[in-house]
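Our working data are protein records whose layout never changes between entries. An example says more than a description, so a record of this kind follows.
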Amino acid sequence: MYLCAVSFETDFFTALKEPNINFEEMALTLFRFQAEHVPVYRQFLELLHCSPKMVTQLDQIPFLPVSFFKSHQIRNAANTSTFYFTSSSTGGIPSQHFVPEIKIYEWSFNATFNHFYGPHTELCILGLLPSYLERTGSSLVYMVSQMIQESKYPKSNFFLTDFKALHQQLIENERQRIPTLLIGVTYALLDFANQFPVPLSSTMVMETGGMKGRRQEMQRSEIHSVLKQQFELANIHSEYGMTELLTQAYSKGNGIFEVPNWMRVFAADLNDARTLLAKDKSGSLNVIDLANIHSCAFIATDDLGIVHQNNTFEILGRKDFSDIRGCGLMYIP
């Protein structure tokens, strides 16, 4: 059984890296594999009286509630990894995502970012992620750390709370017209922008969401308005990701998120999680992330949103009962 799982996952990852994948075919293949080899997901399907053999299209696949990553180890029997990412759940139980092959995550975040923005190696990466750096196990910190290390600009770095140093670095980069990415948790970006407003023309600002209990929650449009004014920018970019996924989605400034070709987002009926809604209808967001080869690729998130005809999506908020946490999440009262 172990050898079978390892062989399947290796072959699946190889196929996943092809430029023109058949998403539905690969999703159904991975579903059948995980329905058999991931004990928690298999038990979940049994409780729903869902026979994997009867699932023949995407809208028939049950999505595992993201909260299961808090209470269970979501992995197949061959996944004996002791390495895992943890969520930044504020005041609650953190999620754990066991990742036996970090190369899959590295491939996913590199391929996704480079698809939407070009090679990250050509950017000076400035990370403002204090709440993430102050704990261990953050997948976001891992991603940004790798990008910093691989950047051709030696001044790429993390800035914990030293806003003055960050301000000076941005001014220097602007003077030299160095293409720069300032990526930060939302509350820290707001604090920095209010204390050190600076006009930016060579710098892209990207918020990863989340107030982490440091500020009153705000709508994304309001946050972007403040940041655009303080940095004199036309657009603020956004990253949507979470511990339980190995792939990110990105917005280039209009609150509309795009996904790579191995990821899909669906809206489900709030009163019936098994019913997927038509495009442009608001509901609870479900995600298929084919990079989640070793855990579960079919996740019912706690986010509310709208999925559009072209597979882009918007975040509207979070379910009332869910923790305020995650990377790309805002709570809208």
Notes: The first strand starts at residue 64 and ends at 65.
